[in-house]
Design brief:
2 copies of one chain form a homodimer. Chain A has 271 residues and is of the alpha+beta class. Chain A is built from 8 helices and 16 strands.
């Protein structure tokens, strides 16, 4: 489907766009099913939070309407929204008069091997560490060189995702996923106040688990915690949940809580 | 002057450009005098180092020729080169077949108040800290949200630059400059192995000072070191050297080594 820039069909952005110059902006990757953007409210909520923290004056009502119109036209697939701080000349200083630029792109539904969801995956243990920057932590911003470098660490098909630690050795997330572990019946995911992307599916899973009365915790996770976990899985808003079977010398079974949450998430993504 | 993309006049980049999507690329800002790119070899050297570290397969011979041709046409002003990892579809994975994209933009000579160079400037003490990421440290890459946030901390004309520390409180650099201090005759600038941009003018000043027999040191700098400095200045490849007269409660005179180096740098930028 043809891309839109500021609501009009377009293929490009001007060279003065601050997204290109500095990665000065945010993005959202949204699953679209039957013309409907899945978990739209959570995507919009994260986007608003990002705009607030980066002082991007976006029209959120307009963005919502555009996403819905674009998704309706796309039907089934993946919608990507990029917001940038519009144009500026040389220098980091912000031109307060420049309107935020809205880019919408559509692509076909993600085509991952079905075994990722059923049998589970292995994580590549990335050497690339996430830098600790509280001002950017949690946001899905356009400064993603760490993820680019980490993703280039493996090419084999044996590893479907990578495991990323922060500079202090805490277990944070995958390269394009959040990570959960289960230990003694508690669902645990990393605190993302120093680094990492606070995924929309992560938020949904935390909320669903709490509603089911499952104990949940958001906390620092060590490699030892990970090793001792009863179950491990990764998630994102496009593929849902993949059980994690192994990473380096560690291994885990696919457990009952992972399967239960997969059922809930599959219903979300398949309706 | 009209911009070039891959050697042709153009105003835009495709929406799939990885510079826009992830800040996946590098840039150089080059002063141009009389059709000549100033400190070209140092700019090319840093760019090559950046390409090596980010695994960007650029044609450096072609880039050199394009910069020279563009500068000759520009005459006097500032040339900006952006290299991106070209196009890709969804996902952080690299498409090894996608050629690196070259963007060249030109603008008028920088117009800073002349007093910045003669009288000196004050630095705004930025609250924004630089995250420590050795994989990216020193590079002039396109992930510059920290600089955007820091530059937005002050709007008044009283502060011409900002002072940035790293997460551990070390003095690193300005928002768009490197920082030097002089103490007991030694010229000192921050070690940039954890964060910061290794500026071309910084490298030139270090080399010139060494050639003159001035003791130089690249080391960690504390706020106490800064406070006790005999002279402080900032530099970049466009404006040269600005003496720093104050930052928060700290103040410094404009010293003789600053004036001596200004003379050398002015000759470079004015020829």
């Amino acid at each position: 489907m043809h891309s839109w820039v500021d609501g009009q069909p377009a293929d490009s952005v001007p060279l003065n766009d601050r997204g290109l110059a500095y990665g000065d902006g945010l993005f959202e990757t949204v699953a679209v099913k039957g013309g409907r953007p899945v978990l739209l409210e959570r995507h919009l909520q994260r986007l608003e939070e990002g705009c607030r923290r980066l002082a991007l004056a976006a029209d959120h009502h307009l963005i919502r309407n555009e996403i819905q119109a674009y998704a309706a036209a796309l039907g089934d697939g993946v919608l990507k929204l990029i917001l940038t701080r519009g144009d500026s000349l040389r220098g980091y200083g912000i031109n307060p008069g420049a309107p935020v630029r809205r880019v919408l792109q559509g692509s076909a539904p993600a085509a991952y091997p079905p075994g990722h969801e059923t049998v589970g995956i292995r994580l590549f243990p990335c050497a690339t560490r996430l830098a600790e920057q509280p001002l950017l932590a949690g946001l899905k911003h356009l400064n993603r060189l760490e993820q680019v470098i980490a993703r280039a660490e493996w090419q084999d098909a044996e590893h479907a995702e990578g495991l990323m630690l922060d500079m202090s050795g805490r277990v944070i997330e995958g390269v394009f996923s959040n990570l959960f572990l289960v230990r003694d019946g508690t669902l645990l995911t990393a605190d993302l106040n120093r680094c990492g992307v606070a995924g929309v599916m992560r938020a949904e899973i935390l909320a669903r688990a709490q509603a089911l009365g499952i104990p949940v915790a958001v906390a620092d996770i060590s490699l030892e915690h990970l090793q001792q976990a009863d179950e491990v899985f990764v998630c994102n808003s496009v593929y849902g949940i993949w059980p994690v079977r192994g990473c380096a010398a560690m291994s885990w079974p696919v457990g009952p809580l992972t399967r239960k949450l997969q059922g809930i998430v599959r219903a979300l993504l398949d309706i």
